[in-house]
Amino acid sequence: MAHYKHILVAIDESPISYAAAEHALDIAKLFGGKVTLISVIAVDPFSGVDFYKVAPAVTDYFMQAEQNALDRLNDLKQTFTREGIDLDIRIMHGLSPSEGILQTSKELPIDLIVMGSHGRKGFQKLVLGSVAQKVLGASEIPVLIVKE
Q1: What mean pLDDT do residues 119-126 have?
Q2: Rounded to an integer, what distance in angstroms lies between the CA atom of residue 19 and that of residue 101?
Q3: What is the pLDDT of residues 69-93, one digit of tens each?
Q4: What's the chain look like in SS3?
Q5: pLDDT at 129
Q6: What are the residues facing 8 on neighbouring strands?
């Protein structure tokens, strides 16, 4: 059986990502592992455009998105810390969620990625894509997908 010493957990605003965090907490307690929680701020569609000078509301939107992500991660951090789990948090920008998760899994000594899947099917999946599917297909390490 594999020993998971460092687990990466993808967190967004969805309840399923919190369920994924609970699974990661259980695994970390079982193996005495460390956990890194990551939240990826969606790719800025206006990057490279001097749009921020024109529309400060867009800047405010991205600043609020980052604050919301930080609040979620810090809330979860308290739970992990109470349980005695060594935990780091990370927020990434400028990448798609799947790219951010995969890049972090290569930068850190990650043994397992845990993430939720929204369970989109058909046209929704085609149009919106599936972060979980992209990570699962490209990851070189095990990926645990928690489903709704």
Answers
A1: 55
A2: 17
A3: 999 999 999 999 999 999 999 999 8
A4: CCCCCEEEEECCCCHHHHHHHHHHHHHHHHHCCEEEEEEECCCCCCCCCCCCCCCHHHHHHHHHHHHHHHHHHHHHHHHHHHCCCCEEEEEECCCCHHHHHHHHHHHCCCCEEEEEECCCCHHHHHHHCCHHHHHHHHCCCCEEEEEC
A5: 57
A6: 36, 113
* pLDDT of 53 higher than 90: no
* Architecture of the domain delimited by 6-147: 3-Layer(aba) Sandwich (3.40)
Tokens of 74: 């810090």
Look-up of token digits 């400028």: 94
User: In the numeric block, which tokens belong to residue 26?
Assistant: 């259980």
Which of 13, 75, 18, 22 shows the shortest CA–CA distance to 41? Answer: 13
**Rounded distance, CA 35 to CA 38, Å?**
10
